[in-house]
């Protein structure tokens, strides 16, 4: 009987296990995606002149987890953006799919061409890494075309040099007292109390507190000195009703809440939907419970509406050029600042000033208001002294006069009209940022009568003072979200 040989079991070829990405690789991948989202928002806003927020505000919002990595990637990519765009055009490696994801492509190209490590995971990363030689060849071609020897010669880094300023931190006194904050921060850095703003602390340049627990839980706010001086200049009392006319991102709004000890009511106005979300996040982080968000136009509020009859103070920090904080905001890295925009800036400043005059006149028209602060982070006279000067006749007819915020402060307004010595200026060189503050206070002898109630020549005089601000509404709709607060 024949014996059947048993068949040997088939050999199983084992596939090598796919190596899992390390924690550092996953973190880098996530940072690139977060940076791409921020970059998309920044570039879109810059192209449309409709900035939702500054680069810092976007990066350090609560929704961004890897803040330090994301911030570095966005800034470095913007610094090299023109070079990256030229290299991509020369290399011609993008298909239609990746052209629709340009912000992510820019981020990855920065890592490939100028970063310390070449990205290894992610579909977009693998696509571009396979074309690394073409990208490097494109960079070499660009250097030849521009007749330079290095990438550094292609970059204008002069704007980044010499801007060293202290780190300012404002204590949210709704959650923490100043002395406790000092005690905690002294474990890391040298800490001093600011001489001008009582709840403001000063630390050495480069002090990094973005991930500090006290910042993450809203006990501390990373806020510059100029910005912190605005609410302090208004000096709202506990129990008052106050309007913050242009609130987002909300640092000044929650500072008002702290100064008012969480009492009274703050009506925080914001027209832009995206900025409303940012404002609400800031309010939630601060723990303030006396802030009511109004998603709408401050100019649409009727001063004679009974619901505003108890409003005692208004903070107006309207859209402005941001020329005093360009380096802080990192606007100098944006494409719109890389070309000669003299004509555009002149037109933009004029439009801003028109809105600023309109908004300030509106703020002064609330019958029961006793204090109004007008502030900008601009260095331009057209947005500062000229705006204040233009409303002085109206302000005087309504019982307001200019007062002097922070009398000990040395730098005052430009001498372009009588009374400019009451205005406050911060100098971009001496104070490391440019800011402007005007404080209007109502005198005891007030006359809030309307022009229609005043007979004869006086009525005509007041109409001439006021009606220049009542220009067609469509002209003023240009301000809607187009300029950063």
TrEMBL record:
S-adenosyl-L-methionine binds at residues 246-252, 270, 297, 317. Keywords: Methyltransferase, RNA-binding, S-adenosyl-L-methionine, Transferase. It catalyses: a cytidine in 25S rRNA + S-adenosyl-L-methionine = a 5-methylcytidine in 25S rRNA + S-adenosyl-L-homocysteine + H(+). The keyword S-adenosyl-L-methionine applies. InterPro entries: MeTrfase_RsmB-F_NOP2_cat (IPR049560), MeTrfase_RsmB-F_NOP2_dom (IPR001678), NSUN5_7_fdxn-like (IPR049561), NSUN5_RCM1_N (IPR048889), RCMT (IPR023267), SAM-dependent_MTases_sf (IPR029063). Residues 157-443 form the SAM-dependent MTase RsmB/NOP-type domain. GO terms for biological process: methylation. Residues 1-29 are annotated as: Disordered. The active site is at residue 377. GO terms for molecular function: methyltransferase activity; RNA binding. Belongs to the class I-like SAM-binding methyltransferase superfamily. RsmB/NOP family. This is SAM-dependent MTase RsmB/NOP-type domain-containing protein. The lineage of its organism: Eukaryota, Viridiplantae, Streptophyta, Embryophyta, Tracheophyta.
């Amino acid at each position: 009987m024949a014996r059947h040989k048993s068949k040997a079991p088939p050999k199983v070829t084992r596939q090598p296990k796919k190596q899992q990405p390390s924690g550092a690789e996953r973190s880098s991948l996530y940072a690139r995606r977060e940076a791409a989202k921020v970059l998309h928002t920044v570039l879109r806003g810059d192209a449309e002149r409709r900035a939702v927020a500054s680069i810092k505000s976007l990066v350090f919002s609560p929704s961004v987890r890897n803040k330090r990595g994301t911030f570095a990637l966005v800034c470095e990519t913007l610094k090299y953006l023109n070079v990256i765009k030229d290299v991509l055009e020369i290399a011609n490696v993008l298909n239609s799919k990746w052209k629709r994801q340009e912000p992510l492509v820019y981020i990855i190209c920065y890592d490939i061409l100028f970063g310390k490590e070449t990205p290894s995971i992610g579909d977009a990363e693998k696509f571009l890494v396979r074309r690394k030689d073409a990208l490097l060849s494109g960079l070499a071609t660009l250097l030849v075309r521009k007749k330079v020897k290095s990438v550094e010669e292609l970059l204008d880094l002069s704007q980044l040099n010499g801007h060293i300023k202290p780190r300012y931190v404002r204590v949210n006194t709704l959650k923490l007292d100043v002395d406790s904050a000092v005690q905690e921060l002294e474990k890391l850095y040298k800490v001093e109390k600011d001489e001008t703003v009582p709840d403001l602390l000063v630390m050495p340049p480069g002090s990094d507190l973005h991930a500090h627990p006290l910042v993450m839980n809203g006990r501390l706010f990373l806020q510059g000195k100029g910005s912190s001086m605005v609410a302090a200049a208004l000096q709202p009392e506990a129990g008052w009703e106050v309007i913050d006319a242009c609130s987002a991102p909300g640092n000044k709004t929650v500072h008002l809440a702290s100064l008012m000890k969480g009492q009274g009511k703050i009506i925080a106005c914001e027209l832009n939907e995206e900025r409303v979300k940012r404002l609400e996040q800031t309010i939630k982080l601060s723990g303030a419970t006396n802030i009511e968000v109004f998603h709408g136009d401050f100019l649409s509020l009727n001063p004679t509406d009974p619901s505003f009859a108890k409003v005692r103070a208004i903070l107006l920090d309207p859209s402005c050029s941001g020329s005093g904080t360009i380096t802080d905001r990192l606007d100098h890295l944006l494409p719109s600042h890389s070309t000669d925009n003299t004509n555009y800036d002149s037109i933009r400043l004029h439009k801003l000033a028109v809105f600023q005059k309109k908004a300030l006149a509106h703020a002064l028209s609330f019958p029961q208001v006793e204090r109004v602060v007008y502030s900008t982070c601009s260095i331009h006279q057209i947005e500062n002294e000229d705006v204040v000067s233009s409303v002085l006749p109206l302000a005087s007819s309504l019982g307001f006069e200019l007062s002097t915020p922070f009398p000990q402060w040395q730098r005052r307004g430009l001498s372009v009209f009588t009374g400019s010595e009451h205005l406050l200026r911060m100098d971009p060189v001496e104070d490391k940022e440019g800011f402007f503050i005007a404080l209007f206070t109502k005198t005891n002898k007030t006359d809030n009568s309307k022009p229609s109630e005043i007979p004869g020549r006086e009525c005509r005089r007041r109409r001439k003072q006021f009606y220049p601000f009542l220009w067609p509404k469509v002209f003023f709709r240009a301000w809607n979200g187009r300029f950063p607060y």
